[in-house]
């Protein structure tokens, strides 16, 4: 696995993939072209630029902050860290439901009122400069998943079946990312697998197929649930479980596409 390049190199690669010239993302982001050029030349991107350019590149701003090695601003973090207890179960039960009921659950999440942030969100500390593995694990943490949540969710939604401790090792740079793990994390994160591979320096042996519809919906639910309080997340998780009815007594492993 190659060493992760600086953000300027990463940004150049993303622009090339989208066939964008420097002027175009700068104009769309409401930013000066010179600011973008400075980043391409190796300057550290500012918070304002990362916020404005993220939607132009098709990324959530929080992920772009992580890719750039910048601290994530408080307002981009999940609302309530205590909701991590329920976040994986919302998605895990959802993938056992028909598509129409998954959409219904997503609408429920989006309809809940926005509550005030109870405290500052702090992702579990990783080893400094933990590399590509640390960046991917941090993206998952900012979906309100702790290591156990990662282990459970990926086992149900993807072919990846790892222990919670293994995710900690990957996050601290003690183990390298595999093509399989990159592909499966991309599905849960709602990121194109080829782009996550490019961002992490992992070579995929073959072009991965599109994520299964269940995985796409799980990623959307996981992202939208970031705005929920712990009480709201518990409510949605209970609704998801009740929608499964008499079948809600366990989870199938690697459910999508099986």
From the structure above, extract its key features.
434 Repressor (Amino-terminal Domain), 258 residues, 0% strand, 2 domains, mainly alpha
Report what the structure shows:
This protein is an all-alpha fold and 258 residues long. It has two domains: 7-71, 434 Repressor (Amino-terminal Domain), CATH 1.10.260.40; 81-247, no CATH class. It has 14 helices and no strands. It has helices at residues 7-17, 23-28, 33-40, 47-57, 61-67, 87-94, 99-111, 131-141, 147-157, 164-171, 179-189, 193-200, 213-224, 230-244. The two termini are 30 Å apart. 41% of the residues are buried.
Helix-strand blueprint:
Elements: H1 7-17, H2 23-28, H3 33-40, H4 47-57, H5 61-67, H6 87-94, H7 99-111, H8 131-141, H9 147-157, H10 164-171, H11 179-189, H12 193-200, H13 213-224, H14 230-244
Helix pairs in contact: 4-5, 6-9, 6-13, 6-14, 7-13, 7-14, 8-10, 9-10, 11-12
């Amino acid at each position: 696995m190659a060493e992760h390049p600086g953000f300027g190199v990463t940004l150049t690669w993303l622009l090339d993939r989208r066939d964008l010239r420097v002027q175009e993302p700068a104009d769309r982001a409401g930013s000066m072209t010179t600011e973008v050029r400075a980043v391409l030349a190796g300057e550290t991107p500012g918070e304002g630029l990362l916020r404005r350019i993220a939607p132009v590149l098709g990324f959530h701003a929080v992920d772009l902050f992580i890719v750039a090695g910048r601290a994530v601003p408080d307002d981009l973090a999940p609302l309530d860290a205590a909701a991590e207890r329920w976040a994986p179960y919302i998605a895990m039960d959802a993938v056992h439901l028909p598509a129409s009921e998954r959409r219904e659950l997503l609408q429920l999440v989006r309809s809940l009122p926005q509550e005030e942030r109870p405290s500052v969100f702090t992702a579990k500390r990783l080893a400094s400069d933990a590399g590509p593995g640390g960046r991917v694990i941090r993206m998952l943490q900012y979906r309100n998943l702790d290591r156990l949540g990662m282990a459970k969710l990926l086992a149900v939604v993807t072919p990846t079946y790892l222990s919670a401790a293994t995710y900690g090792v990957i996050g601290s740079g003690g183990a390298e990312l595999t093509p399989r793990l990159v592909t499966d994390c991309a599905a849960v994160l709602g990121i194109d697998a080829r782009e996550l591979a490019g961002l992490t320096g992992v070579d995929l042996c073959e072009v991965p197929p599109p994520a299964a519809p269940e995985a796409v919906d799980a990623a959307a639910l996981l992202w939208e649930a970031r705005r929920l309080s712990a009480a709201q997340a518990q409510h949605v998780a209970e609704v998801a479980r009740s929608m499964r009815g008499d079948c809600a007594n366990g989870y199938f492993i690697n459910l999508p596409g099986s």
